[in-house]
Amino acid sequence: MPRSLLPAASAVLLALTVLNAPPAHATAADPSPVAVTVNARAALATVPETGIGANHAIWDTNLGTDAVADSLKAAGVKLLRYPGGSYSDIYHWETHTAPGGYVAPNTDFDTFMRGVRRTGAQAMVTANYGTGTAAEAAAWVRQANVTKGYGVKYWEIGNENYGNGHYGTAWEADDHADKSPAEYARHVVAYADAMKAVDPTIKIGAVLTTPANWPDAITGEGDDGSWNKVVLSAAGSKIDFVILHWYPGALDRTGHVPDMIRLTREQITRYAGAGADRIGIAMTEFNTGSSSNGTNTQPGALAAADAYATLLANGVFTVDWWNVHNGIGTVTEVEGHTDYGDFGLLSSGTCTADNSVCEPALNTPFAPYYALQMVSRFARPGDQFVKAATDQPKVTAHAARRPNGDLAVMLVNTSSDTSYPVTIGYAGYRPASGAPTVLTHTNGATAITTTTSGTATAQTLPPLSLTTLVLRPATSQAGLPGAPGQPKATNVTDQAATITWPAASPGSRPIAKYEIHRQNGAITEQLGETPGTSYTVGNLTPGTRYTVNVIARDAGGGLSWSSPPLTFTTGTPATSSCSVRLTNQTDWASGYVGSIDITNRGAALNGWTLSFAWPRPWQSLGSGWGAGWTETGSQVKVVNDPASPTLATGATVTVGYVGNYSGPNVLPAVFTLNGTVCRTE
Length: 681
Fold this sequence. Notes:
The chain is an alpha+beta fold. The protein has 8 helices and 38 strands. α3 (134-147) packs parallel to α4 (181-198). Residues 571-681 form the CBM2 domain. Residues 483-573 form the Fibronectin type-III domain.
């Protein structure tokens, strides 16, 4: 969490690597129209009440003031986190002190809560793990919810506690002699028991590492696995949500989000025990982390809007910007405007050390403020995200369907010099004719403008802009069936899965059937239909991740909203003439050593080739041994050593490689031996 207001070093920025300069933008005199696809049948997560959040810090002299609270309310902020990043692990709420750090006047807990209430938000409080105790945290719960009646629901146990030196780098205060994830997990259990004894309704969060961000996947000395594995295995039954932080350091990393959240969810399912599906995911610190590319100018705002929408669409229940105020940093010129290197939403009104450059007046909104405001107007609590995509890398799209039948589409144009015309096609939705409501924020603008212009299918996006269309449906939405409930998958094999779901409530006409739709990018393919609430899908591809929605159709042809999404992954054949076991032997959060055991369960082979593909474009082969390794694009081939070409029936050969990655590391899952799909063990 960057802190320009203080001499303390940023925890996250210590872990950031050198950032690449942005690529030069190509100029197109007459750019081709960008094709945008919006698919209302391909539903994603529902927008949570707490989705748009921000961090408050006790060293911010403007914490909780009416002016700040009113600005945050206008931006649509619905959750505020306290007392401020790494300060959480040195802060003692009863004395309102943080030994070793600065505490500003009028920043105590009551002041914070007054600001929270004026903002119309909920609070998230981080209990002191590093230098505190479970008893101290329980006393804070009592003060907040019993004595004061504040009703604080969300409580974190510590902040970035993996940064206590256990993995070699230390920024987080931790007085415990044992700094292992096992020790942290033991205390999470103790904190949860003590705090819930005071108020059983609160939700407890535990700190995890973010996939592909240091020190994720690293196994420390003496540990029984990575931080996440150890913490979830020991404390999973006691927690209600997990905590991620993300400072991507570049403005084009939202493509990492679906795998980042999916891998976190898979870890929760694998390690947290029975009922793990109750555990939510919170991104309690987020910032682009890229002062060179525009921390508080328009490129950063565009990245923020894209990331907030993507994270929330993938089921994160809050995304909390670091920070409300932060202070001036490295001053640069970005896209024609001064970037103050400030990680805040609002100006602190501070100057450089030599007073050569000063920020705008206190509380002047920076560009990311308008990004949060745009997201809050685009996707409101209770709306349902649906899939949207474009055929132009410089333009991204998001869409959300509203309970009243309206549809909102947010378009992000990251080109600095090209106004892109867009043509928008809709599946599962028919917009009304006439000009829609259009909300726009452009480079350097100090407000979001609202007009009625263009059509539902044709708009022009200014350079470096956020544009949201709000559309009305062409026909009345009355009398339609309700959406089916959350689907589940059972009996998943390499080629089939049985999908079941709670029945939809009928509207004015009885429900005739249910349709099962698979998401394939921004389009869907119907996998089948049935009058019941269960369907077995066949002809699936081994080792493939599928996301499906169920839609109810009534006797008059009326369609319900889509069910919540279901994601499952097919396996590999239960029986095969070969089997493969891939083991991640050691990991350093940007690469790993993989070991592959290949067992021949068929006739003896005189010469063999193992083939597989990297699941993601950010993965590659570093080196390989035990055989001949070649890589062509995403395809990898492993050919037997010429000196030992045979592989007898029942024999196993082991080969190894170094795999590099710069995003969430989804391991290869499907292997073929001489063209036959093997069973993956």
